[in-house]
Amino acid sequence: MIPRKAAPKGAPKLAPKLAKGSLLPKRQDMSGDASHLAIAPVDIPARRESVGVISDDAIIARQVADALDARRTKPVDLIHSRPGAGLDQLLVPGLTAIVVELDASDAGIGRLKRICAVGPDAPVIVLMRQLDDAAELSAIEAGADEVVDLTPAGDFNGAELSSAVARALARHAKLARPTHPTTGSSETARQPIHAPAPLVLVQEAPDAMVVLDRHGAVAFVNPAAEELLGRAADTLMGKRFDLEIGKGGEITIVQPGGETRVAEVDVVETERGGVPARVASFTDITVRRKLEMALKSAQSGRDAALKRSGRFFSRVSHDLRTPLTHIVGFADLLQHDKLTDPVRHAEYAASISDAGRAMLDMVEDLLSVVDANGASTPEPCDLIKLVRNTAHFLQRDSDGSGPDVAVDAPQTPLVARIDLAKLQRALYRLVAGIGRDADDGSVMRLSLRQTGKQARLTVRIDGTSGKPVALPASLEDSDPLVTPADARTGFAAELLREALDAHGGALQLARDGGSVVAAVITLPLKD
């Protein structure tokens, strides 16, 4: 190896000799010690034309490239993409044109609209099957620059396609060179290129997404948003969406058909073409909200059922103890007291007998509820006949004392789906308990009316003066029960409440001042 001679001290340094196309390291002092690369002249090959072809058939894509090569001095680069694969492959820089194979169906025109809306800035030439004047017009309106006929066998005129591409490129180049405002000369517009990749993401996103311009008007809608909003994209373009920047908002969407959807909305700021814009993404939570409501309703129903069960068994235990306490108490008096008065002896025995009969009735009613819950099936029943049968039983079991019974009901049937045996027994027990202590000459009125989709039965007693009299206090849960008769009436009211709950009905009490003057029974009618 021959040693390199050192340069004389003080002699200027010579730059090394570089081959053409090399990079020359160069250090510049520009307010710091940052290193820079000075680029020397290089040989850059002429840019080839790139054409994107969207087609299911790779043979058609190759034929497109061959047809364009035949009319050009330089070969054409082919970028083949299949429908539904997204537009990412077509976002390479320098794409010359896009050739799309499609038919004249609504799906084909819709795909063409999306390509023209979110695809690269290049002319779009359509190879269309079943081409006629109407189909060609639809394609042009969707954004196509040129339309070429494609036979069912997949053949087309190569020269016609090449000419169509040339015309489209000429028009596109002319639109891209606006006249200078001062010189009047035509020059290429020097504007920043904004990659349309964000719109492609919006287009292909599974969530509903809407792009809004700076004024809040719709500039783009993806297919998922069309489905969620229930409206086509062309009907939404330009419409204002008053959505604020932020996350977690919830909106209710009423579609044109009346269906209601619930969605969470996230709105973020972005830019579109260098202009401020917003992207709103909608997450459909309709199913989640319905499930939450169903769970809430089920929980509410469960709590109500537990409350009814607790109230029912509390009332049953209380009402069964009342006659039992009378039986045990008077039996103790008879056992331990030396009674010489036959009148008192008979009174004690009568009290034991009454309390025993009351307790027997309640046990039978309780057993009937258990049997009805286990075996009965609701069936259509005319409530007018139910009320008239109840009045008939009251009059038959009457010993001639107590109130008269009057029924006020419409002539047309009122049909409900009920468990007849269960409801008939509970209603009779309640009405009998209400009228047990009524004065002679009073009138028990059973008034049946239809209110909307419900039947409404009002039970009241009018005294001899015509004014309503107070009903037994045992109808209310809050009132203490002190006699076997009161216990029997309160127990009957609880049985009727239980039966009505099972049928979607209710038992309510009407008041006059502080006294209960009527029992109001409601039942849903059969559709």
Explain this structure to me?
It is a single chain. With 527 residues, this protein is α/β, with parallel strands linked by helices. The chain has three domains: 49-175, Response regulator (Rossmann fold), CATH 3.40.50.2300; 197-284, PAS domain (Beta-Lactamase, 2-Layer Sandwich), CATH 3.30.450; 293-524, Histidine kinase-like ATPase, C-terminal domain (Heat Shock Protein 90, 2-Layer Sandwich). The protein is 39% helix and 24% strand. It is built from twelve helices and 19 strands. A five-stranded parallel sheet has the order 4-3-5-6-7, sandwiched between helices. Strands 9-8-12-11-10 form a five-stranded antiparallel sheet. A five-stranded mixed sheet has the order 14-16-17-19-18. Strand 1 (23-27) and strand 2 (35-39) form a beta hairpin. Helix 9 (342-375) runs antiparallel to helix 11 (420-435), helix 9 packs parallel to helix 12 (484-502) and helix 10 packs across helix 11. The longest helix has 51 residues, at 286-336. It starts with 22 loop residues before the first strand and ends with a strand.
